[in-house]
Design brief:
The protein is mainly alpha-helical. The protein is built from 23 helices and 5 strands.
Length: 595
């Protein structure tokens, strides 16, 4: 018998092998050979049990934690470096400093290019880090596989971190070459990050092999339904938990390294932690479940869509839209519906793969709304850092407050997983993935409203009022608002909740809705929405300066709120099919390329 951890710590679910004979009578499902082992000995639910039984998550495989630790080290290095970018770019070198350290009462800085340039370069970096996953996904799915691509990504990012160190060394930081070295370091680090991010998320979820609902009986005698989608959701919640442990340690320690020692140390320590990644990957190389590359199926998916769209075009755009969204759009493109002599030579897949591609296209349509959400999230590493510098920090580095976001995530992720989500399931409240994402939009909007109101009072209380960012006395010392910087905490906590609902669920949605041989690609499409947000954010850079910052936060809040409403109206029908989409049979494609 097998032991399963459920969402109730007091419950142990046991699967009895003598129920194997019930499987045939209770379910008409059949499984391909590659997943028989993962489901052997399990009891599958009847239709009545699917509807009535309480659903729980399965236990997580231990090798997933090894991958999560790699992500922790990578995120320590990424966020630990990035958190000091704004000060490095915006603020000038403190008088007499050759490291950029501001000390207890000074403001750390290096290049002195101002807030708009800092926001622009940070936005470019975000864009670059989230557009490169498209290349990482393609090379992993078609040539190298996810694990090998992650290993290459680590080597590339390591080179980028070394160049960042060079840009901040005494003797370089106070010369014009510092900016060039810094930008090269950003570009190379961003490339490595993109290759990494497209593949580490699918790699960790692939460590869990079950993808079908099954029934277990708990120690208390209750029959429950173990739901793989809930297990993947749990896995991504703790994956995000590890991300934010790395982020909070990296960000807090590096802000103090920057303030009291210099930027060279703030770039060196993340590089040292990053060196754990190759050793952990090497240790687990024979322990990870790995999906080999299958050759390019993206072009096949596009051909399939084009084939399904035949005869559905019209000079009337409304009619075309309705035709492309009709219920039979994909059905008529299934191989079983096409006579052998009329079937295109490239149609080397089964009907189930068509269903998976349909599901993947619907997921990508869901992701089209995410750029508006990311606009609000991106404020925490740019404008909110600058806002903190105009408030009374009482000796704290202005960029330390951004750590309230990962700290809140570390606290509230287990709360949601162990208390809130199980309580909702027991109360028969279906807080589905799409409902969570909708909630994430509204939380992001509320965060921006908080920031806008706070910015209004900063202008009201600052000695220079609407020139708060550049306010100095006769001796050149910064003058700030008397408002305590901790008032900012509301924005960060609300953003953290929005991430739990929108960002984590987006990772889950990308993995569970993608065809197995396109998981990196669909994940990259999800990540690419952040790149689009960064590009879109460039249009708002003009608002990232005094006296327009209230408008900046207000516009972001309104956009996120309106997008949340429109998002729900666009996906409410899809939400009703969530369970059906999560339990599709796996499709297969006959590869025509060498793996």
């Amino acid at each position: 018998m097998a032991t399963i951890h459920t969402d109730d710590p007091a419950v142990i679910a046991v699967v009895h092998s003598d129920k194997l004979d019930e499987k045939a009578s209770q379910s008409h499902e059949s499984f391909p050979p590659d997943i028989v082992d993962a489901h052997e000995g399990l009891t599958f639910p009847t239709e009545e049990e699917r509807v009535t039984l309480r659903r729980v998550a399965d236990s997580l495989p231990w090798n997933a934690y090894l991958i999560a630790f790699v992500e922790l080290a990578e995120r320590f290095s990424f966020y630990g470096s990035q958190v000091v970018f704004t000060n490095f770019i915006q603020q000038g070198l403190p008088p007499g400093s050759h490291t950029g350290a501001g000390g207890a009462d000074g403001q750390s800085g290096a290049l002195g290019l101002g807030q708009q340039t800092a926001t622009g370069l940070n936005t470019f970096y975000q864009f670059w880090c989230y557009v490169t996953p498209l290349f990482g996904a393609w090379i992993a799915d078609t040539r190298w596989g996810r694990f090998n691509t992650v290993c290459v990504a680590v080597a590339v990012a390591l080179l980028g971190h070394i160049i960042l160190i060079v840009s901040a060394l005494p003797g370089v930081i106070d010369e014009k070459g510092a900016l060039g070295a810094f930008i090269v370091g950003m570009i190379i680090t961003g490339l490595g990050t993109g290759l990494f991010k497209a593949n580490i998320s699918p790699l960790i979820a692939e460590q869990y092999k079950r993808d079908k609902l099954f029934v277990v009986t708990t120690k208390r005698g209750e029959k429950v339904l173990v739901d793989p989608s809930l297990t993947v959701s749990r896995m991504y919640m703790y994956f995000y938990f590890f991300i934010n442990i790395g982020a909070v340690i990296g960000q807090i320690s590096m802000t103090y390294a920057e303030k009291y020692v210099g930027f060279w140390l703030a770039y060196t320590l993340p590089t040292i932690i990053f060196l754990f990644c190759p050793f952990i990957l090497f240790y687990g190389r024979h322990r990870y479940a790995r999906t080999p590359p299958t050759g390019s199926v993206f072009s096949t998916a596009l051909r399939l869509w084009k084939y399904a769209a035949r005869g559905r075009w019209s000079i009337n755009p409304i009619r075309t839209w309705r035709n492309l969204r009709s219920d039979d759009f994909w059905e008529n493109a299934k191989p079983s519906r096409i006579n052998g002599k009329d079937r295109p030579i490239w149609m080397n897949f089964d009907d189930q793969w068509v269903d998976e591609v349909r599901r993947g296209f619907k997921a990508c349509a869901v992701f089209c709304w995410f750029p508006i959400y990311w606009l609000t999230y991106n404020q925490i590493n740019s404008n909110l850092l600058s806002q903190a510098a105009t408030m009374s920090t009482h000796g704290l580095p202005n960029d330390v407050l951004s750590n309230l976001d990962p700290i809140a995530l570390i606290i509230f992720i287990p709360v949601c997983d162990l208390l809130i989500y199980p309580a909702l399931r027991r109360a028969k409240v279906n807080f589905s993935a799409l409902k969570k994402i909708t909630g994430g939009f509204f939380m992001g909007a509320m965060s921006m409203v908080w920031a806008a109101v706070l910015q209004h009072y900063i202008y009201k209380t600052n000695p220079c009022h609407y020139s708060a960012a550049t306010c100095t006395d006769a001796d050149g010392n910064n003058l700030v608002s008397p408002l305590n910087v901790w008032i900012q905490s509301g924005s960060y906590v609300l953003i953290a909740f929005s991430e739990i609902f929108a960002s984590i669920t987006g990772l889950e949605y990308a993995f569970t809705k993608a065809p197995k041989n396109m998981r990196s690609l669909v994940m990259a499409v999800f990540l690419f929405t952040s790149a689009l947000a960064s590009a879109l954010g460039e249009a708002f850079v003009a608002l990232s300066t005094d006296p327009l910052l209230v408008w900046n936060y207000g516009v972001m809040g309104v956009l996120a709120g309106v997008a949340g409403v429109l998002f729900w109206f666009s996906v409410r029908r899809l939400d009703r099919d969530e369970d059906k989409l999560n339990n599709l049979d796996e499709g297969h494609v006959q590869s025509t390329e060498k793996a």
